[in-house]
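User: Before I run my own analysis I want an independent prediction to cross-check against. Here's the chain; please return only the C-alpha cells and, at the end, one sentence I can use as a sanity check.
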Amino acid sequence: MNDIRRSILWVVFGFSMVLIWDKWQIHNGKAPTFFPSSAVTAPQAAGGAAPAAGSNAAVPAATTAAAGVAAAPGGAPAPVAQRIDASTDVLKLTFNSEGGSLIGATLLKHASQQLGSEPLQLLVQNEKHTYVAQTGLIGGSFPTHKTPMSLVSGPTSLADGQNELMLRFESADVGGVKLAKTYSLQRGSYVIGVSHEVVNTGAAAVTPQLYLQLVRDGNKTDSETPFYSTFTGPAIYTEAQKYQKVEFADIDKDKTSFEKTSNDGYVAMVQHYFASAWLLGDGTVRENFARKVDNNLYSVGAITTLPAVAPGQSQKLDARLFIGPQQETVLETVAPGLELVKDYGWLTILAKPLYWLLEKIHGFVANWGWSIVLLVVLLKAAFYWLNASAYRSMAKMKAINPKVAEMRERLKGNPQLMQQEMMKMYREEKVNPLGGCFPIMIQIPVFIALYWVLLSSVEMRNAPWMGWITDLSTKDPYFVLPFIMTLTTIIQTALNPLPPDPLQAKMMWLMPLMFSVMFFFFPAGLVLYWITNNVLTIAQQSFINKRMGVPLKITNPFELFRK
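Assistant: C-alpha cells:
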C-alpha cells in the first residue's frame, strides 16, 4: 500500500512539473511543449505589431455556385475613406466609408482595466491592433468591403427618448449592381441589425453571394498572464456539430476542422470576457470559413447565395451582428448556442449551474466578492458528510503515524516484513490509507468548474469586493490575499498526516508551497475562492480531529527538511 501511495505522489508531482514547464514555455513566447493552447499566438508582423489593414483584408473567394471571383473595384482612383462615428447608450461605433465596414466598437458600460475609467474598445483598427467586421458581395465584379460607400444623411447618435438609430450606407454602381447596408442600433442592446439590399441596375440577371466576416489579428488579450490563459480566436456553431473552436495555429497549418456548410448557427471571434458574432436567420444556407488573411491576420465568416436578381429588381437579406460582453443571461436571449462563447470546456455541465447559483446569490448580496464566499460555503456544506469521511480517515492515519514510524525504523532492513506488518496494522486499526483521497477526488471536478466560472465571467471585471480589492479580475495589488492563501495552505498541510516515508513527507510540503506562488499572479476573485475553501477545510478538519481525540499538532517543515 505504501508503494501505491508513493506512486500516486510521484505521478502528481510529475504532472505538476509538466504544467509548470508548459507555462514557462508560454511565458517565454514559445509554443507549449505538452498542452497546445490558444495562448500561443500566430507569428506577428515585423516589429511585433498587427497589420493595420483591416480594409485591405482579401475578399473571400466565391463558392462554386457563384459565377467567378470578386475583384476590388477599378477605374478612377477611390475617394479618401472617411470615418463616421455613431453611438447609443451602450455602444460607440466607428464606420469606414470604404465598404461601410465597422472598424471600431467601444463598450461604454465596460471600463478598460489598462486605461482606468476609459471605456473598453473591442473593435479597433490601428497600427497595433486590428479587429473589424466586414460584409460585401462576391461572384462577380460587385461591391465589396473595399468599395467606397456614402452615408445617407441622418442622425448618428441616439437622442433622449429615442429607442432606435438607423444608418444607411450606399455604394455606386459596380458591375451593374448597387449595395446598400442599413445598420439598426437599439437602446441598451449589443445586437446590431444589418440589412443588405442588392439592386440590379444592369441588363442581365445576377446571382451574387453575400459574405460576412470578422477579421482579427492573432494577438492575445492583455488580461492573460503566463499562469493562466483563455481561448482567443474564431468559433463556429451549428446545431449539428455544436460549438467548435478554431485555433489560429491550426489556420496557419491549414488543419482546421469545423462544419463547413449549414443552415443555422453563427460565426464568432472570441477572446477573454468579450466576443463578436455574425448571425444569419435559421434556414439560410451558408458556407462557413476560417482563413489566414495576412501575416498575423485572420478571418472567420459565412457566405450565402442570394436569389437571382432580375434587371431593375432588388433582393434584401437581413443579418445580425453581436458585439459585447460574454454575459451568459444576455447571450442566451440573442441566439441558440451563443452563450457557449463563454467557454467552460468539458465541465460546462457543472459550470452552468454553478454560474446560475452565483448569479442568484449576487441578486441578494449585490457584491461579487461576498457572492463567491457564500457560494463556496454552500458547496462545502453540500459536501460536508463526504469531506467528513475523508477527514476521519486522515485523523486515523495521523493517530497511528507514530506507530508506523516506529515500525519503519525497526524493520527498515526487511522491507517485505515491514510491508506485511503495516498492512496488518491498517486492518487492525481499520484504516484505509487512501480513504481520504477518494471523497476529495469526487469533488475536484466541481471546484475546477467553479474555477472556470470565476475566470470566464465578465462580471468579475472591475467588480470591487472590499477595501483595497477594487477589481476581482486582476491580481491583488498588495498581495495580501495570496499571502493569506499561502498561510492557509501551510496550516492545511500541517493538519494532514505526514507520510511515513521522509521523501513523500517533503513532497507533501513542497508541492502546496510551489503552487501557492502561482496565486500571487492570479485574479483576486480566484484567490478569494481558494482562501474561503481552505479556511472552511481547516475548520472542518480541526473539528473532526478534536472529536476523534487527535491532538492538533503543527509540523515544522524546517525540521523536516533538515533531516
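Sanity check: Residues 1-15, 23-54, 64-77 have pLDDT under 50 and may be disordered.
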